[in-house]
Amino acid sequence: MRISDYIEQSFSNLCKKKLRTILTTSGVMIGIGALVSMFSFGQGVQKNVTDRFKELDLLNYITVFPPSEESQAKKSSAKEDAEEDETQQVHILDDDFIQEVTKIKGVESAFPEVRFPALVRYKENQKFSLIQVLSADICQSGLMKLRAGKPYAADDANSLIISDTLLRRMKVKDPQKAIGEKVEVSTLMLDSDLLSPANVTSLMQGDRGPRRAGTDRLPFSSQSYTFTIVGVAERMGFFGSMPLRSDVVIPPGAAQKMKKLSLTSIWDFFQSPEQAKGYPSVSIKLSSAKYIEPIKARMEDLGLKTFALIDHLEELKTGFIFMDMFLFALGMIAITVASLGIINTMVMSILERYKEIGIMKAVGASDRDVKKIFFFESGVIGFFGGVFGLALGWIVSMLINEVVNYFLAKQAVPYVDYFSFPWWLCLGAVIFPILISLVAGIYPASRAARVDPVVALRHD
Asked: Rounded to an integer, what distance in angstroms lies between the CA atom of residue 339 and that of residue 431?
């Protein structure tokens, strides 16, 4: 018999029992659909993360931190008998350090992390936020994605970039309407008039006393500054850009004119005098990832701590592998149930076609021919289950993607494809169920091949 004869015979036999064939194929379809949806989600997460890293050049960044007190103490004790210990300098992350770093081969730019708390008031709404200071060239480098407006052009401009997230918290849904509007930024600063011993003592004892000018007797006063919104930054799905961690960004020239309290957390009170003199961290952008290791080694030789995302890329890939294995294990549960359904269908087909098998053998069909017929029937079920399962998985994934993006759009998160269908997944969604069906058909085909034609012809 030719292959076309086997296929024609398989379709003819399966069409005789349409309902049972549809139910068995539906089991395979649901199993493949679930497997495809879960795998496509895992691939979508991996694709979004890696694409975001590449798009924002996050793999070309190194973040430098000052040495900790513990590391400084160990280094000092290890060199206490050396002559150079007396002239040893603590490297401070200041403007001089940034200028030196930018002269290193492979470094495109370097900018410090400067953030301070402030009250941002837009029309009748106000929210507390951390203000980040970034130079104009960094804002224009493409690191910041804008939904509306443009980056400020000069470091001394009295301009401001606000995130779409903060605007939505202020009940502004259209970012374009905010461009050109005025924003009032109120900073905190120490008030020497409120630092009297009696006031500090009563504050530590929990006696807050009567309110005074909105400060509640805390040793702080506020100063207000007016900025013009020139751009609205979008909130990144999954991973945003590491150096940009605040909802409001202003140029350094305007920040220097502001009276402010540069504290981002309570731990800033416990910094050493040397650490307090410099910036908490400096981000270094490299022209290529090949410079990461040499520059990291150079910074670590200075006693500084470093962090680079590229070092953790392998850990991310390992995590994605484990996630794919977990999703595959869940999908295989449905596939296993579907394969049991195929075995049941084929065994029932043998019992119903017992006499037919005997006639085929009586007229010259070999055991191999009988096996092939049942193998082809199983393969046809797997093929259609795979094709319709791929379609089901794609439809369900697209529906989930649209629903998730609908709700996240209300939180100012841009549209993201959370599911990805690479070619190998689509091809595997068709081939894999065929293989599973053929495996499931081994026992029924072998059982059909063992049928004795004499006994089968007497079977009623």
From this structure: 14
DSSP state for residue 266 in the 8-state scheme: G
Report how far residue 313's alpha carbon sits from residue 53's, in angstroms, rounded to the nearest whole number.
10
Mean pLDDT of the region 269-293 = 71
Instruction: Please give the pLDDT value at position 398.
Output: 92
Cα–Cα distance measured from residue 403 to residue 441, given in angstroms and rounded to the nearest whole number: 40
Residues 19 and 90 placed together within one structural domain of the fold: no
| Sheet with 61-65: strands ordered across | 107-112, 282-286, 61-65, 305-307
Cα(407)–Cα(400) distance, rounded to whole angstroms? 11
State pLDDT tens for residues 181-233.
Answer: 999 998 877 665 655 555 555 555 555 445 444 444 556 677 889 999 999 88
Considering the domain architecture, whether residues 344 and 425 belong to the same structural domain is answered as: yes
Q: Which of 31, 33, 46 is nearest to 397 (CA)?
A: 33
pLDDT score recorded for residue 86: 42
- What pTM does this model have? 0.58
Q: What one-character-per-residue DSSP string does 362-377 give?
A: HTT--HHHHHHHHHHH
Q: Alpha helix locations (H) across 241-312?
A: 252-256, 273-277, 292-301
- Domain that includes residue 63, residue range: 58-308
Q: Residues 254, 353: one domain?
A: no
